[in-house]
Design brief:
- This protein folds into two domains: about 70 residues, SH3 type barrels (Roll); about 40 residues, no CATH class.
- It contains one helix and ten strands, in the order ββββββββββα.
- The strands form three sheets. It has a five-stranded antiparallel beta sheet with strand order 6-5-4-1-7, with no helix packed on it. The protein has a three-stranded antiparallel beta sheet with strand order 8-9-10.
């Protein structure tokens, strides 16, 4: 995943410090990333202390997640599109306040807002 550095200032004053360890100790600074720079994040290394492990211009280190915005590799901000993958699953009538409802002899379970026939749910776990 790629991230754009979004600090409050441009130029060298807006550079984000890169650290060798996931902390903000002055002695661990190894490089910096300018405002608007694009870094590549590594999901195999979990965030620690509000810091994310990234690479920029061949140097890898830790930067503050407060100044990162998800983007593509060219720095274009990405948007999250919600895709509705439910097609013809919901029964014609549901009661969103209950956990299950019945329709034509079928029992529908509603889990996290998704309705599924009880039999289909059992098949999914077997």
């Amino acid at each position: 995943m790629y991230y754009k550095v979004t600090t409050s200032e441009s130029g060298s004053a807006g550079a984000l410090r890169m650290h060798s360890t996931p902390d903000t100790d002055e002695s661990s600074i190894i490089s910096s990333v300018p405002h608007g720079g694009v870094v590549q994040g590594y999901s195999v290394t979990p965030d620690q202390n509000g810091m994310r492990y990234v690479s920029y211009n061949g140097i890898s280190g830790w930067v503050s997640t407060l100044y990162l915005t998800a983007c593509d590799e060219k720095g274009n901000t990405t948007t999250t599109t919600t895709v509705d993958r439910q097609t013809n699953v919901l029964p014609p009538t549901t009661d969103s306040s209950s956990e299950s409802t019945s329709n034509k002899g079928k029992t529908w379970l509603i889990i996290g807002g998704v309705a599924m026939a009880a039999g289909a749910l059992m098949n999914a776990f077997m």
